[in-house]
Automatic annotation (TrEMBL):
PROSITE patterns (alphabetical): PROKAR_LIPOPROTEIN
InterPro entries hit by this protein: DUF885
Pfam families xref list: DUF885
Organism: Flavobacterium microcysteis
Protein name (database record): DUF885 domain-containing protein
Upper taxonomic lineage: Bacteria, Pseudomonadati, Bacteroidota, Flavobacteriia, Flavobacteriales
Length: 583
């Protein structure tokens, strides 16, 4: 099916191409050079149309512009989409390099999804939380890409449009969902401190003239009032028939295709998640049953299988580090993982690009655990950091609960996922085939899917092999499986909150607080929760398929290196390119 799709595309572009198609090396190269120019032009236009997005990616030419989300702007976006799609048609996929082939597909997907979002999803009508200016101003205040004075001047100009921005928002909003309305009120009011506190402090310490300072403070007052008005307007909104937060089957299926860009559709992934949940429960029962006496001695075994599993998991979770040692424990594991990956010949890791482990910077504080900070597309020489959160200042009870969750077993899986050979390793490879398009539009399902894939791959290779490790891994993996089931069930199958919480706490062994948080997230987002499991499943299935086809000649290390060499492209396109190469 995919093949047909691809050849149709190629065919369409052949007919629209005004040159005769040559297949010799010179014209291929020529086509690639043209396409490189096209991409540059495309990104210029993209940033012109989306100044806020540009700033967030480290492109600061349009920092002073706040776009007013009115009808005229919507028309501009539709226009952009159709003009750029026309331009794309001039290129024939078959004449492009692999890197450009995937860039082409990703640009095309973005352009088509612009129209889909405006004409079909219409979240600008039902999601009032989409209108919020504070975070873009906060980013400019905290950024150190330019002097404070230059940033403040841009902030000053950008503030001019805030009242008009919220007026346009009010015009767009029709029957918003209750959940997004509440979120919009809370987040907009929460963001006021950016203008009332942070901006004031920055202006105070700047070298701007007295007049300039006063002008900014005056605009800040006007901005705060516009935000407060918007929140008050939402609070009083006569919303008799609010839209449901559930997206509905038809839109969900389409949004899944656009956002995930998988070879599987939403329904196929849902069915796979359902059957994997069952499979994991069976495997977990075997392990927990075996481990019962080690952890619970002669205590009578509960009749219910899931209860039995949970009791064993709870006992194993007591093996954890202390708040003091949390960071050093994570740091210690990085070189261990690197050495293991090398010894087992799983994938080459470039030693010249070491991961910089650091204490989580203050502005990120609050999210404990670990995360990767990669340099943006316009900051190529920046370091890649592994941010490790600190538990200092946490209450004893909170720290204990957190450490049980990130116990000695799960903490290692977290390091595999975030660092080696997960996100960090993928990043090193993607930087070797640099693409501005993939830096901006990188496929989330591929990126998360790779990290989730490596967890299983590492355990399969024998990493810290034990029944406990596998049981805890399955518990961890159930999270991504159940995220997918939850997301699909809530948005297309009317799953109730009670059923949702039950799924997460009883079947995925989550704490109540985590389950409540997840429920909230699924009422506010759509599809994104599926990206982890979908990407993982697609990579894993592809690997198994190749193993079968290649038999003894299959080489795991080559598979990993080849797979990552295409950068953060959707798995279905990587798969296509790898398969073509084989033939
Ligand atoms: Zn404890
Ligand atoms: Zn991740």
């Amino acid at each position: 099916m995919k093949k047909t799709f691809l050849s149709l595309l190629v065919l369409a572009s052949l007919y629209s191409c005004n040159k005769t198609v040559k297949t010799d090396a010179v014209s291929e190269e020529f086509s690639d050079i043209h396409f490189e120019n096209y991409k540059e032009h495309f990104v210029d236009e993209l940033w012109k149309l989306n100044p806020g997005w540009a700033s967030s990616q480290g492109y600061h030419k349009y920092d002073s512009v706040l776009v007013i989300p009115d009808d005229a702007y919507e028309q501009k976006q539709l226009q952009f989409s159709s003009v750029q799609l026309d331009s794309l048609k001039k290129y024939s996929l078959e004449n492009l390099s692999d890197n450009n082939k995937t860039d082409y597909q990703m640009i095309k997907n973005l352009l088509e999804s612009i129209t889909f979002n405006i004409k079909e999803v219409k979240s600008d009508e039902w999601d009032p939380s989409g209108y919020n200016v504070s975070s873009s101003f906060a980013e400019m205040l905290n950024g150190n890409y330019d002097s404070l004075e230059v940033r403040l001047k841009n902030i000053s100009l950008k503030m001019d449009n805030i009242p008009a921005y919220y007026e346009a928002a009010k015009k767009n909003i029709k029957n918003p969902t209750v959940e997004h309305t509440q979120l919009a009120i809370a987040q907009n009011l929460g963001g006021i401190s950016v203008f009332e506190t942070d901006l004031m402090a920055a202006v105070e310490k700047s070298k701007l003239s007295k007049e300039e300072k006063e002008a900014i403070l005056g605009k800040a007052k006007t901005s705060v009032k516009a935000i407060q008005d918007y929140a008050a307007w939402l609070q009083k909104l006569d919303n008799k028939t609010p839209r449901s937060f559930r997206l509905g089957k038809e839109l969900y299926a389409k949004k899944f295709d656009f956002d995930i860009q998988s070879g599987y559709n939403a329904e196929q992934i849902y069915q796979k998640a359902i059957s994997q949940k069952k499979e994991l429960h069976d495997k977990m029962f075997v392990l927990a049953d075996k481990l019962w006496s080690k952890y619970l001695g002669n205590a009578p075994k509960p009749a219910d299988k899931l209860t039995l599993i949970k009791q064993v998991i709870d006992k194993i979770s007591l093996q954890h580090t202390t708040p003091d040692k949390f960071q050093s424990e994570i740091e210690k594991q990085i070189p261990e993982l690197t050495a293991y990956v090398k010894a087992k010949d799983l994938i080459y890791i470039d030693p010249s690009k070491p991961l910089v482990v650091r204490k989580e910077p203050d502005y990120m504080a609050g999210v404990a655990g670990a995360s990767i900070s990669a340099p943006g597309p316009y900051d190529k020489n920046g370091n890649t950091y592994y941010n490790v959160g600190s538990l200092s200042g946490w209450s004893a009870a909170d720290a204990e609960s957190y450490l049980r969750e990130y116990n000695n077993y799960i903490l290692q899986i977290l390091n595999i996922h975030e660092a080696i050979p997960g996100h960090y390793t993928q990043l090193v490879y993607s930087n070797q085939s640099p693409s501005i398009i993939k830096a901006i539009l990188g496929n989330g399902a591929m990126i998360e899917g790779w990290a989730v894939y490596t967890e299983r791959m590492m355990l399969e290779s024998g990493y810290k092999n034990s029944d406990e490790m596998w049981l805890m891994y399955y518990k961890w993996n159930l999270r991504t499986i159940c995220n997918t089931i939850l997301d699909n069930s809530v948005h297309t199958r009317n799953m109730s909150k009670e059923e949702g919480i039950n799924l997460l706490t009883k079947e995925a062994f989550q704490q109540d607080a985590e389950a409540e948080g997840k429920w909230k997230r699924v009422t506010l987002s759509q599809v994104q929760l599926c990206s982890y499991f979908t990407g993982y499943t697609e990579i894993y299935d592809f690997r198994e398929q190749l193993k079968k086809q290649q038999g003894k000649s299959f080489n795991l290390k080559h598979f990993h290196e080849k797979f990552l060499s295409y950068g953060s492209a959707p798995v279905k396109y990587i798969k296509e390119l790898m398969q073509n190469e084989k033939m």
